[in-house]
Design goal:
Proton glutamate symport protein, single chain, 0% strand, globular, mainly alpha, 418 residues, 20 helices
Length: 418
Amino acid sequence: MSLSHAQSPVKPGLALWHKILIGMVLGVIAGAILGPNAEVLKPIGTLFINAIKMLIVPLIFCSLVVGVTSLEDTRKMGRIGMKAVALYLGTTAVAITIGLTLAAIFMPGAGLNMTVEAGAAVGKDAPPLIQTLLNIIPKNPINALASGNILQIIAFALGLGIALTLVGEKAKPAIAVFDSLAEAMYKLTEMVMKLAPYGVFGLMAWVAGKYGLEILLPLIKLVALVYFGCILHVVVVYSGIITVIGRLSPVRYLKGVLNPAAVAFTTTSSSGTLPATIKASREELGVSKGISSFVLPLGATINMDGTALYQGVCALFIAQAFGIDLTTSDYLLIIMTSTLASIGTAGVPGAGLIMLSLVLTTVGLPIEGLAIVAGIDRILDMARTSVNVCGDMMVSAIVGKSEGELDTAIYNKESRAS
């Protein structure tokens, strides 16, 4: 019966985010009814995830090359890149500060009285920052493409795009090929996104069936705090920047991010949501092809606002759970480490745990604390990934507006069903 009900998300006339929302609700209901047996519905979601992953590497590579070559002026590209990176890192620092502040006020880990022996460490240590920086340049770009190393792919795509721009007339045939490939990827993205309501249904049924309310109850305060912080960051910080700096309607921005935010919530992958993010930035916010193709893939890799906020809350939660007091310098170290580490964190599910391990190690908190959070990481990952994607779209709109490459007629129009 649940599968037959899942047909409803594709009724004509409904906006994509409405269809996705219906799929989410039906998935939760199915998961609650079926319990652990909801595992049988997971392949529906896995199929959608695989289709999304199929798009990531060629889409990022082609869109970045096209984005760089469409700018033509390398000085303009450098200016846009500086604006985007400054906004991404600035909002990341603000996000983790919000997380730390909320955790310090509401103290979600107080009274748990955990000991270091209580759990085992989970995940692997994040690489040192210097190693991350050294690894940005691929020794073998083909291997980087094959292995899906997003940071290296971005570096190679930027280099190739700049080189094609500098070559001039002789590079036009190659640029035309990349332009055609990018257009084909956008069309393929549109086709894959039609599967989103079904994929969301399968994923949410599995999550609800696997975790249930029982496992959330002991950690419900932590979950609520992360979700509240994420909503606060989008509604106050992002909308505030859109209003004050961009002189744009925050309501239209919030409407425009609904589709990719819903996809991000269920896929828990900033990179995986990139096709939906690019589509919405162009069609809902009016960001130009050149800006969106350059700023958004960059953001999918270095913009980790939601993850940083989550780290702030979780680091203090773990400190409180183990009865460890942090100093002011510890707080500053957490902010700095999380902001810098976000540059090298891939936008894929579970990357937040690796970043959190880096923060815990840096501040001297027990790595065993990861075991407490790992059980509900998927639920937390949903919220933080949605924030990451909303941040990507905010930056693309602000940079587009500052460069005169944002179509205000498209931005100010009423959202259409898609």
